Amino acid sequence: MSQVSLPKSLHPNLPLTALAPMQDVTNLWFMKVIAHYGSPDYFFTEYFRVNDTSRLNRNILAAITENDTGRPVFAQMIGESIPDLVRTAKELCNYNIAGVDLNMGCPAPRIYRKNVGGGLLREPEKVDRILGELRYAVSDRPLTVKMRVGFENTDNFYQILDIINRHSIDLLSLHGRTVKDMYHGAVKYDLIGEAVRRVDCPVLANGNIHSATTAIEVLSQTGAAGVMVGRWAIGNPWIFNQIRQALRKEAIAPVPLVEVRNYIDRLCQTPTAATMPVRSRVGYLKMFLNYIALLVDAEGHFLRLMRHTQTEVELLNLCDRFLLVEETKTFALAPYSGL
Ligand SMILES: Cc1cc2nc3c(=O)[nH]c(=O)nc-3n(C[C@H](O)[C@H](O)[C@H](O)COP(=O)(O)O)c2cc1C
């Protein structure tokens, strides 16, 4: 059984929702933007890198110390050195965090080659030692794990789930793909269901939840305690409210495209934009627009033209053209397929 209780959810009668941690995305500003459109129950920071010389990254820390969304923030760590993970977890506990989360899923080769992130899934004994020491260090707050279903295959999956039980992990966020799958291929929701039945703690189902309807389907297929949404919260910041509406069997209010134009403006107002070189600003906006565009027009015109723009002025004019002209058009409730 869990040793400590999780922070209160927004709506105790509904399944949990969480914004997935995303490096270079889920910073303080993005959490504030998401909160404006409808907070999830939980936020997770980008990962704090942990090694023998690491210090807490100040920008990531700001998502905890300056967070005024009113929602709990879990601090995520990535690393493999047990003394340094323990040191960092204790340092993080000096701040107002909801809990400490360990990343066991990052699929970037430069990361897993160091046996951190998803690389840890190859070494259950190491995971056992890390979680044992971390549990001892983080005894009065939730200790949580975010992972994938395996590295190359699922051979270690059940062993790792049992390790999660042995160390009384408080919450498991599970992306239903292997590390080698990266972000491709079908998400194995059946394995998420297996985890739900095997572990003692609540499980957040993660991977390709792109609409309120998929959230409902995944919850019913897996029996998970909640859903964790990453890329489709970038594309659609209304998604957490829409999931709650769907769970309550309410009609989902369509979002007028002019509101999407306002969302883009809000993203532009990130305090770091002022110091960003112009080229990076265009790249920053396109990263978001790559997801947003998939809900704008079924033909993919906005997506294609957006990718060809070179300057910020060109990009924002294009947004005006597609989002401000037809006042009656609304944002799709799920990304158009085939784009
Ligand atoms: C740009 C980007 C950055 C990510 N950074 C992290 C991270 O720092 N920590 C982590 O555990 N997962 C990270 N992930 C994985 C997501 O949290 C999530 O598991 C994955 O995107 C699948 O969920 P989705 O289909 O809802 O996006 C990242 C994903 C993306 C797309």
TrEMBL record:
Keywords: Flavoprotein, FMN, Oxidoreductase, tRNA processing. It is an enzyme of class 1 (oxidoreductase). InterPro entries: Aldolase_TIM, DUS-like_FMN-bd, DUS_fam. Residues 19-320 form the DUS-like FMN-binding domain. Its cofactor is FMN. Its EC number is 1.3.1.-. The keyword Membrane does not apply. Gene3D superfamilies: Aldolase class I. Catalyzes the synthesis of 5,6-dihydrouridine (D), a modified base found in the D-loop of most tRNAs, via the reduction of the C5-C6 double bond in target uridines. This is tRNA-dihydrouridine synthase. It comes from Scytonema hofmannii FACHB-248.
